[in-house]
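Something for you to look into today, if you have time. I want to see for myself how the chain folds. Leave the record below and I will have a look.
***
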Amino acid sequence: MGKYAILLVLALNFAIIFYNYGLQNTLHVAEVQNTESFTIAQARNIAQGATQVAVRKLQIADDPSFAPTINSTKFYPSDGVSFLSWPDVQGEYRYEIENVNDNQILLTTIGRYNDREYQVNVAMAISGSTWNPVFPMAVFSEEGIEVQGSSRIVGFAGTNSTDYRAVDLYWSTMVDSALYIGPGGDPSYVVHERNFQSGNTGLGILNLMEPMSYPMPEYPSHPTTITNSSINITSWPPRPDVFLHEYNGYYLPEFSMVGNTTVNFHVGDEDRVLHVGHLNLQQGHFRIVGNGNLTIYVEDNITFNGSSSLRYAPNSSGNVTVFYKGNNTLDFAGNTFFDASVYAENADIRIGGSGGIQGHIITGGSSVEVFGNAEAITRVLFAPNAHVELTGSGRVRGPVVANTFKAVGNSRVFFASEEDINDLPELEVSTGGVTVLSWR
């Protein structure tokens, strides 16, 4: 019996040793996989961050020696093989920049962390002074970011600030990708991650190589037109179709629709201009017929409420851009649908209810609010001078640029890649540069 007991003990010891070995091996494999995943993510972050810097330098053109001359290629470092150090993230990067016939620039960036590399390719057209900013982040805020409740930023987020707790992320909030803070900033000082156990960022906190800059584009001059009579559309008598070419060169003090009326506005296949003092859609449906673009210049005020809509008719396509010069707050609420881009020179903007704007928003105002159940924007919210705040379950599906940013409740911002952002209004900037064609 004693001999069997000894054999049993030896078998148990062997089983325990084998189990421990298997457990250690499993843990080692998991650790290696986690390390590998983190290494790849960091290499990607380094490549994307370095690319942002290079594109901005090429756009602003503040260092003419950075860009290559016609039909030549520049390498940074110059040997085209070694890497430049990025100490803040313990990584490295290098550039290859090719000038093709002086009308296109091809940028290749390779980021490296440990032994893993990640490559980003950007194609740019050499332009004069066209406004075409780069939006590599879901949210960029000059001075700080605050995210409360269970809100999320789905994509990268960043700020130029290095101030104490410039970024405040509450317990149940998340920045799904990396969070960038100002160059040289200490993450433990700048970022308050209230979920101290696992953090509030998916890919960690990194430093920008250089501050990012988002200047406002130049607001365009309104056309010089001859004053004509206002247009006031009611439910009775029925209004026939409107052919917008008849209003070329005229200024309408007021354009109003009430009584839940629907009117077809024909643009044909040409671009049309409508110049008004007050665009007043109290309760009306502005339906555009044709494939031309429509530009609306508004001097004094925009009223848009009820269940009003402004959109293209079925089988018609084009873009509507509204330039608003007035100072009154633009309030898009109720169950409205505004399928147009808006550039407000100085006005604040409120978007609420279950309605919203389905185009780009550009404003030089100081405040943008997205509240209620608004599916606010499907493109760009560009408000570099404003405090942008999302509350309730408001949604923004496109990049946000703000001076300060706050999200509370169950709000969301969803990243949109460069390929998904198109049809920006054709605006000018005071400096020349390049236009991004693709980023992958």
